[in-house]
Write a structure and sequence with these properties.
Helix content: 25-40%
Distance between the termini: 59 Å
Shape: globular
Bound molecules: zinc ion
Strand content: 25-35%
Largest sheet: 8 strands, mixed
CATH topology of the largest domain: Neutral Protease, domain 2
Number of strands: 29
Structural class: alpha+beta
Radius of gyration: 26 Å
Strand order of the largest sheet: 5-4-8-2-1-12-15-14
Length: about 625
């Protein structure tokens, strides 16, 4: 019987285009065996189109990334055909859009897709949202990179048939219609769901973690075999049990997939992950076996962050996120909630459920305070959020620093105001009951809702420190749970959003992967470029230990008029190294703070009570 099915399917695949009945579904076909270099061919038997012209589109942006990537720029040689095989006229309207004439006769589309991994055109695509095509090795299908939609046909069914190399398996939370040795077929009820469920194809290293209500898949691709799925099992089980406990004894979905991609190649400059309703996809360096424990520890925090995203934004969001416009994305003012409160919970749940100690937690908060002090602290967080795609792009990463601190402060304040009875999760639970996955809130109404659920004092905090630009009184708020905050001001060079750093394992030098703000006067007058490897600043060698203070620290205060000389190694097209001294004078400084946190030894009864309530004791 099995053999029969196999022969039958191969027969079907060969004759697929003459036999596939056209209906209201998108029917895609991709043969992973036919990858050429870094490109794959995609075939689509289109749904029946009821107009004379139609636009076929790829997203400019997808949910969760808060950045415009224009995925259409990786698509080429798009051709449209009618049922007889005659070509229809197509016109490339913009980078993401193809207009097709004679669309009422449209039957088939073909095109090629180039992978985003390792692509050198800007903007570099953050790998967790990108595509990877490595013949006979691994394929990452972030589906919006391969599959588009016809304008007005976002709600149609999608059916995707993959032919695959022997031994490959597609790890995903997408529904598999069937799988066998050479083929896998997936189904999605609409485009948004398809985009929300990435697939990783490779020779599988997988395991499942089972709960009464949920089955969790762990899938690993590690070319150097530095990390195995089995390495992740204990830490993830502990984490999921903690989250389950915190969220009231049940995981929020009946299935979930953790897809871990470890890379040994040069990437876009960032490492990290992207969240979905039923999965998350991670892109991390493929560390050697000896460093596996360190990597697994790191990933526990990142995985906590991505998993908590099921709570928000996935099940609590405004219209800008819920009614997502793939080609004209609009920003919500609530990144403090979607990313900030999520990042807060990634650490807080682990503290509350005793995975990390109070000392560990205090160190994390100290790092976030010091990290946030490098960003613009007089920019209202709602403004940052609304401008995250353009005007305030260079401030975006502060959502993981100050955003998390806003979550912490709100949680403590809500505890204090309710005499310990209510926390931020209770408020989120109420809001999710009122709104929820399919019922987005109006962006401008959320603060009013929160104040109604809590107290005027919480409303005042939001007005002043979240929607306003006043500095958060950390000492006062953290003091409510017996944590003392000491801050010491010092001046640093204003480098805008700063620099993203990587490490060249061949030269053992730090390398500038990305300049976050290309308009920064200091960086431009210095002439620093992405790809430069750092050697020294004002004669002192730069290494891992001192790189964070190279433009000023408590011990190394910088003032206007100071000379800065940086020696970098820059490589020409042939790969030859030139050492160049870059010089400038400091024209603009800003105040940063060094924070030190410690537990207050003799707390009063009220502090003790609020702290215990906050820690769930
Ligand atoms: Zn996130």
């Amino acid at each position: 019987m099995k053999n029969f099915i196999l022969i039958f399917i191969i027969f079907l695949s060969v004759n697929v285009f003459s036999q596939t009945e056209q209906n209201d579904s998108y029917n895609f076909f991709v043969d992973l065996n036919n990858a050429e270099g870094n490109t794959l061919s995609v075939d689509l038997i289109t749904p029946v189109i009821h107009s004379s012209t139609i636009e076929y589109k790829f997203p400019a942006m997808v949910p969760g990334t808060y950045k415009v990537y224009n995925f259409g720029r990786f698509v080429s040689e798009l051709k449209a055909f009618d049922k007889s095989g005659s070509e229809l006229q197509t016109f490339s309207k913009d980078v993401n859009t193809w207009e097709i004439s004679g669309a009422d006769n449209l039957y088939r589309l073909t095109y090629k897709v180039r992978e985003t991994f390792g692509d050198t055109t800007r903007p570099y695509v953050f790998e967790p949202v990108g595509t990877c095509i490595k013949k006979d090795t691994v394929f990452v299908f972030n589906n919006h990179g391969f599959f588009g939609y016809f304008d007005g046909y976002l709600e149609n069914d999608y059916r995707i048939t993959f032919r695959k190399p022997e031994g490959f398996y597609g790890s995903t939370s997408l529904d598999a219609v069937y799988r066998n040795d050479s083929e896998e077929v997936f189904h999605s009820g609409d485009y948004q769901f398809l985009v929300d469920d990435p697939i990783m194809f490779n020779v599988p290293d997988t395991l499942t973690i089972n709960f009464d209500e949920s089955e969790v898949l762990v899938s690993v691709f590690s070319p150097g075999k530095g990390i195995k799925a089995s390495d992740m099992k204990d830490k993830l089980t502990t984490l999921l049990n903690a989250i389950r406990n915190y969220l009231g004894g049940k995981l929020p979905s009946d299935k979930y997939s953790f897809l871990y991609f470890f890379s040994n190649e040069k990437g876009s400059g960032g490492f990290g992950a992207l969240e979905h309703n039923l999965s998350s996809l991670y892109y991390m360096p493929d560390v050697p076996r000896q460093a596996a424990t360190y990597m697994v520890d790191q990933l526990q925090g990142t995985s906590a962050h991505e998993f908590y995203h099921i709570v928000t934004p996935l099940n609590l969001h405004s219209e800008e996120i819920g009614i997502f416009d793939f080609n004209n994305p609009k920003m919500s003012r609530h990144l403090w909630l979607y990313e900030g409160v999520t990042e807060y919970h990634a650490d807080y749940i682990r503290l509350r459920e005793n995975i990390i100690s109070e000392d560990d937690y205090i160190k994390i908060i100290e790092d976030k305070l010091n990290g946030a002090s490098k960003y613009n602290d007089t920019l209202a967080f709602t403004e940052l959020s609304l401008g995250a795609l353009d005007k305030h792009e260079d401030q975006y990463l502060n959502v993981y620093q100050k955003g998390a601190l806003i979550g912490l402060c709100l949680d403590i304040l809500i505890r204090n105001e309710s005499d310990g009875r209510q926390g931020i999760q209770d408020v989120i639970n109420e809001l999710t009951k009122k709104y929820g996955m399919n019922n987005p809130f109006k962006d401008e109404n959320l603060f009013k809702d929160i104040e109604e659920l809590t107290s005027p004092k919480v409303g005042e905090f939001i007005k002043k420190y979240l929607d306003g630009y006043e500095k958060i009184p950390y000492k006062e708020i953290l003091g409510l749970v017996g944590i003392d905050v000491e801050s010491m001001p010092y001046s640093v060079v204003n480098t805008g959003g700063g620099l993203s750093m990587g490490f060249n394992q061949k030269t053992f030098r730090l390398v500038i992967e990305k300049i976050e703000n290309s308009n920064n006067e200091f960086i431009n007058s210095l002439g620093l470029k992405a790809g430069d490897e750092l050697i020294s600043v004002n004669g002192a060698n730069i290494n891992f230990m001192n790189v964070r203070s190279m433009f000023g620290s408590m011990k190394n205060q910088i003032k206007k008029g100071d000379d800065i000389e940086i020696v970098v190694a820059r490589f020409d097209e042939k790969g030859n190294e030139n050492q160049i001294a870059l010089k400038t004078k400091v024209k603009e400084t800003k105040t940063a703070y060094e924070y030190k946190l410690k537990e207050i030894a003799d707390v009063n009864e009220k502090q003790k009570k609020i702290k215990n309530a906050w820690l769930g004791k």
